[in-house]
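Re: that chain you flagged

S.,

Sorry for the slow reply, it's been a week of failed gels. I finally had a moment to sit down with the sequence you sent. For the record, here it is as I used it:
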Amino acid sequence: MTETKSTISRAAAAIVACRGMTLAYLCVVFVIGVLQSLEAEDTGFSLETGLTIGEAFAEAGLIYVFCLFLLGIERTSAETKKSVWQFTARYLLLIFMPFYLISFAAVFGVIYGMSSLLTSLEGMLVLLLPIMVTSYLLLLLGFGTALPSKLVGTQAGISEALRRGRRQFRYQFPRLLVGVVALNLIAAAVQFLAEGFAINPVPVSSEGGIDLPGSLIHLGVRCIDMLALAVLSVVVCEAYLRDLRDQGELISKDVEVFS
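Prediction finished late last night. Pasting the structure tokens below so you have them in one place:
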């Protein structure tokens, strides 16, 4: 493996190669955004938990096909088809749900425990942001390589992923911080800027119709999220392959994007 290709270029290659799935992902999350907008307008139904879980499944599916491409694994094989649910379960249980619960607990604690000290939204964000960024990074560093390892089947245990996370910390940390967390922060910043210009970054207007500026901003934010997931896939796959090579367990499931 050489370092001639950047992480972003590898992520772009994965997006192009998996363009059918990336388009499906954007369609799914756009529909979820529409439903969340309707929920915000108090239409009489409550879908928030279901929509959050649906978004988690969409993310898991996208990372799944990215990892298959990056590892050079045939997507149509019977063994691969069986692994999709195990892969999804790992993403949900090891990364998505822990981060969701930590974020919920942090927000609850700040709002109800420190509301007398932090009266402004900006003050709460200053406290919440480091907590959420740190927890997300730790989860990715600890369990991220458990995703590609499940597809390959070599050193696939959770405890092995934790040890691998320590060994590959110097490789993963800067790339996850700059390539994944930074992109997520950019996506959040785009939404805040849109609100600052009096544009609600959601697909449905307060009147119940499609809001074109809001839809475009929402779609743009989702594209940034998609790029972040592609970068995440590149980092965890390459960290996994690097560690196998360092441990002397070379594999043949490597494609040009990692050559």
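What I noticed first: The first helix runs from residue 7 to 17.

Talk soon,
D.
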